[in-house]
Amino acid sequence: MDTAMRPKQSRLYRTFSKVINLRTTTSRIASSNGICLLALNGKFKDNLDRRKDDKKEEEFRVRNRAVMEALLAKLFAGITSIKAAYAELQMAQDPYNNEAIQTADQSVVNELKSISELKRSFLKKELDLSPQVTLMLAEIQEQQAMMKTYEITIKKLESESEKKDSDILSLEKKLQDLVLSNKCSEKRLNDSGSPSLSVFDNLRHSELNPTHFVQFQQQALRSIKSFVRLMIREMESANWDLSIAVGFIEPGSVFEKQSHRCFAFESFVSKTLLEGFNNPNFGLPSDSLSPINKTHLLFFQKFKKLVSENPKNFLTQNPSSSFCKFTKAKYLQLVHAKMECSLFGNLNMRKVVSSGGVPDSAFFAAFADAAMRVWLLHCLAFSFGQQVSIFQVKKGSRFSEVFMESVTADDVNMEPLVSFTVVPGFKIGKTVVQSQVYLSPVTYPAGI
Prior knowledge:
Oligomer: single chain
Strand content: 5-15%
Shape: rod-shaped
Largest sheet: 3 strands, antiparallel
Order of helices and strands: HHHHHHHHHHHHHEEEEEE
Number of strands: 6
Structural class: mainly alpha
Helix content: 55-70%
Number of helices: 13
């Protein structure tokens, strides 16, 4: 029985022992609870202090960055102000303005001092800037300096524009003087290159010989050349492609020099004006001239009467004359409607000429002068009382010094061929006046 009770007692003992031990342990935990809490509170305080330090450090970095940004903004604003003052200093040099130079110079000095003071404060770490205020003031200063620079630039551009306008006016005046000088030179050249018309004032019919015809032909050709030069200038002003125009006049022609294209226009004008030259009535209707006007003496009288006349004045005062009808017909034939509209933008001259009037323009004046010279040349030709005819040289014909004269100053060699006739030749009885031709450029065989 005793042995039977021992196991029960042992289990009970162990149970009480556990309870006692548990209570003892609980008492220990309870008694040491304050110490554990104090340890936890210490760690938390350390973390809290560290966070406060980090926050202060971040705030310091942010403020330091803002101060540096304000410093840079103030520095760049100062540099912009120096640039504006320097621009003002340059502007005051021409024209010279002593007061403006001193003001600009003082502005540069003040800004350099301000930048130097910033540098000193930065190196000694004594910067005392309010970032927000400094940034705003720097922005205002920079904008004002830029506006000042723009104003100076505008003044400079306006000054340059005024100077260019003055230069343009001066160049236009020089151009007008040169044009006038060229016209005077052309007139002197025309007068010196052929005998004066006064030579024919005292000419009597009994003294007339072929030399007089050749001399007056030179006058007529000079008038034609003068009109052609004016016509080409008008074409260039109207942006004509002269190469295309030449191609229509003389298809397939090749020119040794670009300046030789003028001979194609001379050919067009001279052939048009001389068309019908071999007829006593010069292509006008038969009833325009009475039969008596076809005698050589009356042709000579007409020549003498008109040789000293001004073409425009004569046309204005004699609208029913044969010469007026001739001029009208030749102008309408030479200057067709599309050409006149392209050159001058309207058909005003054509309308005036068609109605029997005289246009008041340099272009028509030059044409009328050429037309009168050709008309007088026709009168002079029929004054000889012999058969009159004109002739042209076919393209590709061999050059002959008997019947032809080259319009270029180049030496004639290697049996050149005729490209086209510039001015037809004349036959008065047995007298031959050479035609003027343009020769095809010489092409040399390969290897020569």
